[in-house]
Amino acid sequence: MNAVREAVEGVAQAGVRHLTLYAFSDANWARPANEVRALMTLMEEYVALEKKKLAENGVRLTVFGDLSRLSKSALRAVQDVENATALGDSLEVHVAISYGSRDEIVRAARALAKRCAEGELFPEEIDEKRFADALRTREWPDPDLLIRTSGEQRISNFLLWQLAYAEIFVTDVLWPDFTREDLFKALIDYSRRDRRFGLVKT
CB under 8 Å to 142, separation ≥6 — which residues? Predict the structure, then answer.
């Protein structure tokens, strides 16, 4: 919870408009049941402690993923924080829970295939924009920067489509120990990058 608070307050201080956090992957359901329960309880506690402060500071928090797998109390906490912060207009925080990018891409493909089967869409009309519009993140811009904690050198099934041209910053700091100073280091490093989006600079 401290790491989330540091990240949210840090990006707000830096003037960032969108922050996406990977809180719980669809693969995490395979963890021991007591660990899953502890993580869900932690999420509920975070909502209870922070939703009022988030709303007061203009933060809108949204949750995406396969929420059908959440317990009733966890789902209620998600709905509570989304409702409490719905009018936030200074920072949007998107939290991925029970989320896997491959699953998201498969669901998008199925949705487009269904539209084609129903005659609403022709296969040749499917382009990058239409595919992106079928993803859960369609209302938000693609990430500019991915911060990978714990020194891990992998994306871990997170926003595979959306991260196509994102810059990546890897830090050895473990997520529970992550502070706004660590965030600022990543942002400073990002500000020095020369982003070409696959193009050759002339």
Answer: 162, 163, 164, 165, 166
